[in-house]
Amino acid sequence: MKKYLFIPVACLLAAFGLTACDDDERPQVTPTATGTMTDLEGNEYPWVRIDGLDWMAADLKCGEPFDESEEALACIEEYGNFYYIDEALANCPEGWRLPTDEDWQSLERALGMPEGDIASLGWRGNCAWLMKQSAADGGTGLSMSTNGYMCTSVSFGWEDWNYYGEYGCYWTSTKDAYPGECYYFRKICAVTDQVMRQSINSEETRLSVRYVRDAVNE
Predict the structure, then answer these.
(1) Which residue has the higher pLDDT, 45 or 217?
(2) Is 56 inside a domain boundary?
(3) Cα Rg for the chain, rounded, in angstroms?
(4) Which domain holds residue 44?
(5) pTM value > 0.90
(6) Model confidence pLDDT, tens digit, residues 204-217
């Protein structure tokens, strides 16, 4: 039987070395174009163009639900689904791709992350607040969420939905050179401007998905 564990653990900036920027130091970034895209099931999403890449501006929700309960289905409809890496790749519509680690680095660079932090692991940079900006904020419109993520155990048959409202985790399509099925991902936190770059076991984790494409004229 599956179980879902909501863990509202506050992010402790001092404990984890996370920092926030002063408002006076923050750059302003707005998309150079916007539009809509459609997933494999006909669901429509906004996209925003930043530095030559079109990014989905909402979390993917198509494909097999992580659970069929009424609570889970309502969450998927409003906030998006969680995916294993193979599901994230399989649900990509034509003309789009699951972003590579380099795509994410390009976005981070465009949002003002210091060049010396771009290829670093762990918490780095100061641009998560721009990733979280909605279109209503008059900023990037990326609207990346802190919906948590799913940890699973194939051996023991359980799944935990962790850190809802605190962290958001997004796949890249780039496999880590470390032995095993590990892929890079990005993690943002509700109360810090930093962005985590790390790899994670793709067979035991379901994360959120945003697709990207090279900018095209429509």
Answers:
(1) 45
(2) yes
(3) 17
(4) 13-214
(5) no
(6) 889 999 999 999 77
